[in-house]
Amino acid sequence: MEQLLVFLPLLVILGVFMFFASRRQRRAMQATIDLHESLQVGDRVHTTSGLQGTVTDITDDTVDLEIAPGVITTWMKLAIRDRIEAEAPELDHTDAVELTADPERAPKD
Protein backbone atom coordinates (compact mmCIF):
# COMPACT_ATOMS: atom_id res chain seq x y z
CA MET A 1 0.00 0.00 0.00
CA GLU A 2 2.86 2.38 0.81
CA GLN A 3 4.42 1.70 -2.58
CA LEU A 4 1.20 2.82 -4.28
CA LEU A 5 1.25 6.08 -2.31
CA VAL A 6 4.84 6.71 -3.44
CA PHE A 7 4.01 6.23 -7.12
CA LEU A 8 0.62 7.98 -7.08
CA PRO A 9 2.06 11.56 -7.31
CA LEU A 10 4.34 10.45 -10.16
CA LEU A 11 1.38 8.97 -12.04
CA VAL A 12 -0.63 12.16 -11.54
CA ILE A 13 2.27 14.30 -12.84
CA LEU A 14 2.70 12.01 -15.85
CA GLY A 15 -1.04 12.18 -16.58
CA VAL A 16 -1.07 16.00 -16.44
CA PHE A 17 1.99 16.18 -18.71
CA MET A 18 0.38 13.84 -21.25
CA PHE A 19 -2.86 15.84 -21.18
CA PHE A 20 -1.12 19.16 -21.95
CA ALA A 21 1.15 17.60 -24.58
CA SER A 22 -1.80 16.10 -26.47
CA ARG A 23 -3.69 19.38 -26.21
CA ARG A 24 -0.77 21.30 -27.74
CA GLN A 25 -0.48 18.73 -30.54
CA ARG A 26 -4.22 18.96 -31.25
CA ARG A 27 -4.01 22.77 -31.54
CA ALA A 28 -1.05 22.56 -33.93
CA MET A 29 -2.87 20.01 -36.10
CA GLN A 30 -6.00 22.18 -36.23
CA ALA A 31 -3.91 25.23 -37.23
CA THR A 32 -2.38 23.20 -40.08
CA ILE A 33 -5.82 22.05 -41.25
CA ASP A 34 -7.12 25.63 -41.13
CA LEU A 35 -4.12 26.81 -43.19
CA HIS A 36 -4.67 24.15 -45.87
CA GLU A 37 -8.39 24.98 -46.11
CA SER A 38 -7.73 28.73 -46.39
CA LEU A 39 -5.14 28.56 -49.19
CA GLN A 40 -6.01 30.66 -52.23
CA VAL A 41 -4.47 31.12 -55.65
CA GLY A 42 -1.82 33.84 -55.41
CA ASP A 43 -0.73 33.08 -51.83
CA ARG A 44 3.02 32.90 -51.18
CA VAL A 45 3.89 29.81 -49.11
CA HIS A 46 6.78 27.86 -47.60
CA THR A 47 6.95 24.08 -48.00
CA THR A 48 8.22 21.73 -45.32
CA SER A 49 11.46 21.38 -47.30
CA GLY A 50 12.03 25.16 -47.28
CA LEU A 51 10.96 25.98 -50.83
CA GLN A 52 9.07 29.23 -51.40
CA GLY A 53 6.45 29.52 -54.10
CA THR A 54 3.20 31.10 -55.23
CA VAL A 55 0.02 29.01 -55.35
CA THR A 56 -1.26 28.76 -58.94
CA ASP A 57 -3.83 25.95 -58.60
CA ILE A 58 -5.44 23.99 -55.77
CA THR A 59 -7.16 20.59 -55.82
CA ASP A 60 -8.40 18.43 -52.94
CA ASP A 61 -4.98 16.90 -52.19
CA THR A 62 -2.45 18.87 -54.23
CA VAL A 63 -1.22 22.41 -54.75
CA ASP A 64 0.60 23.73 -57.82
CA LEU A 65 3.37 26.17 -56.89
CA GLU A 66 5.18 28.56 -59.20
CA ILE A 67 8.74 28.51 -57.86
CA ALA A 68 10.25 30.65 -60.64
CA PRO A 69 8.70 32.52 -63.57
CA GLY A 70 7.13 29.82 -65.75
CA VAL A 71 8.23 26.91 -63.49
CA ILE A 72 5.24 25.20 -61.86
CA THR A 73 5.57 22.16 -59.60
CA THR A 74 2.89 20.02 -57.97
CA TRP A 75 3.02 19.39 -54.21
CA MET A 76 0.82 17.59 -51.72
CA LYS A 77 -1.14 20.00 -49.51
CA LEU A 78 0.50 18.39 -46.49
CA ALA A 79 3.85 19.76 -47.69
CA ILE A 80 2.70 23.37 -47.19
CA ARG A 81 4.15 24.57 -43.87
CA ASP A 82 2.98 28.19 -43.69
CA ARG A 83 1.86 31.26 -45.60
CA ILE A 84 4.34 34.08 -46.21
CA GLU A 85 2.76 37.28 -44.97
CA ALA A 86 3.43 40.53 -46.84
CA GLU A 87 6.13 42.56 -45.12
CA ALA A 88 5.34 45.99 -43.74
CA PRO A 89 6.95 48.79 -45.75
CA GLU A 90 10.12 50.08 -44.18
CA LEU A 91 10.66 53.76 -43.47
CA ASP A 92 13.47 55.38 -45.40
CA HIS A 93 15.99 57.59 -43.63
CA THR A 94 14.17 60.87 -44.39
CA ASP A 95 10.94 59.60 -42.82
CA ALA A 96 12.82 58.54 -39.69
CA VAL A 97 14.47 61.95 -39.39
CA GLU A 98 11.11 63.72 -39.78
CA LEU A 99 9.57 61.58 -37.04
CA THR A 100 12.37 62.30 -34.59
CA ALA A 101 12.39 66.02 -35.46
CA ASP A 102 8.71 66.37 -34.50
CA PRO A 103 8.66 68.46 -31.26
CA GLU A 104 5.50 66.75 -30.02
CA ARG A 105 7.22 63.35 -30.23
CA ALA A 106 10.49 64.51 -28.73
CA PRO A 107 11.34 62.94 -25.36
CA LYS A 108 10.60 65.17 -22.40
CA ASP A 109 13.18 65.75 -19.67
Automatic annotation (TrEMBL):
It is found in: Cell membrane. Signal peptide: none annotated. This is Preprotein translocase subunit YajC. The chain crosses the membrane at residues 6-22. One of its GO terms (cellular component) is plasma membrane. It comes from Mycobacterium celatum. It is a single-pass membrane protein. It comes from the Bacteria. GO terms for biological process: protein transport. InterPro entries: Preprotein_translocase_YajC (IPR003849). The lineage of its organism: Bacteria, Bacillati, Actinomycetota, Actinomycetes, Mycobacteriales. Pfam families: YajC (PF02699). Belongs to the YajC family. Keywords: Cell membrane, Membrane, Protein transport, Translocation, Transmembrane, Transmembrane helix, Transport. The keyword Transmembrane helix applies. The keyword Cell membrane applies.
